[in-house]
Amino acid sequence: MFDGKGLDGAERLIGQWRGAIEERAGRAQALASRLAQLSETARSPDGLVTVTVGARGDLTALDLGEGIRQRPAAVTAREIVATLRAARGAMTGAVTAVTAATVGTDSAVGRAVVETYADRLAGGDGRG
Question: Which Gene3D superfamilies does the record associate with it (predicted)?
C-alpha cells in the first residue's frame, strides 16, 4: 500500500501544504500588524474641526480652531460628529487598501476583515 513513491509523493504534498499555510499565516500576521498601526484624520470643510481616529475607529485626537468660539455649541457638536464620520469613512478605505495589499480582498479572510471593519466603523461604536 505504501511504496516508496507513494510515500515520497505524500511527503511532498504535506510540504506544499505546510508552505502554503505558513505563507498565509505570514500574510495574516502582516495584515494584523499593518491594521494596528492605521490612523486617519479628517478636517471639517471650514477647517475648524480636525479629528483623528485609530485603527478601531476610536477618537484619538480632536483639535478645535479658535473660530469655534464664535458658533453655538450645537453647531460645533454636529461638526465634530460629521468630521468623525468622515475620518471613519477614510479608515474603511485604508483598511480595504491594506487588506488588498496583504491577503487580498477577494479571499475569505480579506472579505471578512473588510466587512467587519466597515460594519464596526459605520456603527460608530469604535469597539472591537
Answer: Nucleoid-associated protein YbaB-like domain (3.30.1310.10)
Model pTM score? 0.77
HSE-CB for 78 with a 13 A CA cutoff: 6
pLDDT tens for 34-70 read 999 999 999 999 999 999 999 889 999 999 999 999 9
Tell me the C-alpha distance between 92 and 96, whole Å: 6
Distance CA 87, CA 25 (A): 30
Confidence of residue 122 (pLDDT cuts 50, 70, 90): confident
Sheet of strand 49-54: strand arrangement? 39-43, 49-54, 59-64
- 59 compared with 25, residue with greater pLDDT: 59
Burial class (CB in 10 A: 0-12, 13-18, 19+), 74: exposed
d(CA 109, CA 95): 13
